[in-house]
Amino acid sequence: MTIATEPANGTEIPPVAPSVEALPQLVDSFGRRIHYLRVSVTDRCQFRCFYCRPPGGIDLAEHRELLTLEEITRLVRLFTECGIERVRLTGGEPLLRRNIMPLVAALAALPRLRELSLSTNALMLARYASDLVANGLKRVNISLDSLNPETFREITRGGDLAPVLAGIEAALRAGLHPVKVNMVVMKGINETEIPAMVEFARENGLILRFIETMPIGEPGQDSISRFVPAEVIRETVQRHFGRELRETRPPAHGNGPARYFRIGSSGGEMGIISALSQHFCEGCNRVRLTSRGRLVLCLGREDRVDLKAPLREGMEDEPLRQRIREAVAKKPERHRLDGETPNIPPHRMSALGG
Ligand code: SAM
Ligand code: SF4
User: Fold this and answer.
1) How far apart are alpha carbons 213 and 275 in whole angstroms?
2) Interstrand relation of 139-143 and 207-212 (parallel, antiparallel or unpaired)
């Protein structure tokens, strides 16, 4: 109830706004607000990018081990009721999950979800982009590590570049916005393509982010020898364009781990995600749900909490929300990808969805 009072001199004091019910927030024990959930919907993929998967593929979950679409929807709803505002569908390759469209539609309709997005290798995007938009998806992230068909084939172990480029085009045509392109930069493989990728992004209206390779997907030594630090990526762009890179603050696109830079005054822009050379843990705002229903609190740690078992045992909503809150409270302070615990299992990205 609001009460309008009238002061002695007769001017009316505007009524006090009714108090808005405070929205719930998920906060970990280090005071970080966790509002972003990455949901892996499948561990399957058509590619075997060598930084992500072994040549022979990974041990795939049996269908009954995967969360069903209804289970994913219920869990995501519970997460949003705890304070998650942004959700990204990932994998494996999320477009391989059967009935992904009804899932997108169900999640897009969740009243507390402010943003739904999807990470894809774009191989099937030409076929699906307009359906995704029709079902409520607004934005997409696409992995593209090379513009050279041979290099692309080498990185993905046999993948074809042409349908991926067609997928990017279809995403733009369908009105997905923004379309972000992520390139994992690797010494001796694709680092010479950094300037070409900046040009490609600028010409096509894409938001480009360079990603430092993380020692997660393959035995550590290979990824370490290919590691290109963020500073080198930055210097390469600066040298090529002969322009200074100025960091945009606040970050130009979203509040994730990427730092964004403007290339001169009119020369486009780019982002860099550096998990290793510049720790981003203090600003971490995310947790991950695997396709088998485990909540992963940190990409570079082993801690995980099973949510599928209680779900299948019939746990009610409030105890499940409580389990989510308690799990998030235990999120570790920082990852250990820089060698302090060298036993991060290989091929972890495939399960966690990046
Ligand atoms: N298949 C989809 C794709 O490729 O976009 C979604 C899943 S993929 C695991 C998600 C992201 O993780 C991709 O951008 C990929 O480049 C990134 N990724 C996988 N392994 C990585 C690694 N070892 N270091 C850095 N990024 C990695
Ligand atoms: Fe598949 Fe994406 Fe991993 Fe490449 S990075 S193997 S496309 S899941």
Assistant:
1) 8
2) unpaired
pLDDT tens for 112-142 read 999 999 999 999 999 999 999 999 999 999 9
Tell me the CB-side half-sphere exposure of residue 271, using CA atoms within 13 A.
Answer: 23
Task: List, in order of start, the domains of the chain with CATH numbers.
Answer: 36-352 (3.20.20.70)
Ligand 1 centre distance from Cα of residue 35 (Å) = 21
Q: Is the CB of 347 under 6 A from ligand 2?
A: no
Cβ-contact 196, 210 below 8 angstroms: no
Closest CA to 332 of 287, 289, 290: 287
Average pLDDT over residues 304-330: 96
Q: Name the burial class of residue 105, with classes exposed (0-12), middle (13-18) and buried (19+) by CB atoms within 10 angstroms of its CB.
A: middle
Q: From the CB of residue 88, how many other CB atoms can be counted at a distance below 10 Å?
A: 23
Atom 4 in ligand 2: which residue has the minimum CA distance?
49
Protein residue with its CA nearest to atom 1 in ligand 1: 93
pTM: 0.89
Task: Please work out whether the CB of residue 353 comes within 6 Å of at least one atom of ligand 1.
Answer: yes
Q: How far is CA 6 from CA 11, 14, 15, 254, in A?
A: 7, 9, 10, 45
Residue 159: CB within 6 Å of ligand 1?
A: no
In degrees, to the nearest 5, what angle opens at C-alpha 17 toward C-alphas 12 and 23? Answer: 170
Select from 88, 184, 185 the residue to mutate for testing ligand 1; criterion: most ligand atoms less than 8 Å from CB. 184
85 and 55 Cβ atoms separated by less than 8 Å:
no
Report whether pLDDT(85) > 80: yes
Instruction: Say how many CA atoms lie within 13 Å of 115 toward its Cβ.
Output: 16
- Are 91 and 99 contacting, i.e. CB atoms less than 8 angstroms apart? no
Cα separation, 132 vs 237, whole angstroms: 34
Which of 100-104, 134-138, 222-226 is predicted with the least confidence, judged by mean pLDDT? 222-226
Name the closest ligand to CA 145.
1
- Closest alpha carbon to 142 in 165, 116, 119, 124: 119
